[in-house]
Amino acid sequence: MNAATPTSIEILTSRLEQVLDLCRRLSEENRSLRASQEHLIGERAALLSKSEQARARVDAMIQRLKSLEQNP
To answer: What distance in Å separates the CA atoms of residue 32 and residue 62, rounded to the nearest whole number?
Structure first.
């Protein structure tokens, strides 16, 4: 076999390194996506809480307005 021709082991080693590199990149991407997901879940919970607080304030205002209409 000539020196320029890679052996089966060299080809296999190269492919294995590519697979390992891909696994590392996918693992990092997965970690990043999970962190983003956790952040978005927290942000959503905060927004839902603010929305509920706003809804309660609007309901309270409506009740006050109704009571003002009934007691001029």
So the answer is: 45
